[in-house]
Amino acid sequence: MILRRDIFQAIADPTRRSILALLASQTITAGAIADQFDGARSTISKHIQILTECGLVESNQQGREIYYQIKIEKMKEIDLWLDQILKIWENRFDNLDTYLEKIQKNKR
To answer: SMART domains, alphabetically (predicted)?
Structure first.
């Protein structure tokens, strides 16, 4: 059984978020990804490995090169979670608005 990393832990790192942003616009090799960062190639490779393990990135071999691309369907999990949180907060703000309106009416 392969244990997958949690996608929220993966996106918690700013370098991995930058890699995802890069892959959102293009499919490229690990070397091309590493060229975009100041860190060691081995460090960037580890970030790519983590993103792959959690299912946010997939690799495709073409000849001797391995190309990486973002998996949009997995990114939707993040979007759904954020949408749930947004709805909770919108409800809280609506309740606050209602309460403030009630206070204002009572002052008149």
So the answer is: HTH_ARSR
